[in-house]
Design a protein that fits this description.
54% helix; 2 strands; globular; 7% strand; mainly alpha; binds zinc ion; two-stranded antiparallel sheet
Amino acid sequence: MSLCALCGREARGFGYCHRLRWDRYPFYRFCSMRCLDAAAALAQRMHGMIDKTALEKQAIKDARRYFAEALTELGLMAPFYDRKAEEIDRLIEACIDGFQESMQRQATEKRVQEDELSDPLPF
Ligand SMILES: [Zn+2]
């Protein structure tokens, strides 16, 4: 299993190499046409490379709105209301790091179930 070069989900047979120049540019795999199209547009602007740094920064910022919506729906907004944006971003980044770490681990090893059985977290 390989992972989507843009979002980190499981890649599903969508690939991209800038100008189909395999000798000059890296080959990237994606989970969907949506990620492929977005990454291809990015590669056009970045000379064949997909540098996610600027995108990730903006994506974390954009995720704040979804985080706030979920907090509101769960009635949890009050304790977070006066927190700094950097603190909210830390929570978002923790979720993203955990998600991506798990995706990468699952992609490289098959024995994930044992970890899950001994998981000490209550949720
Ligand atoms: Zn993707």
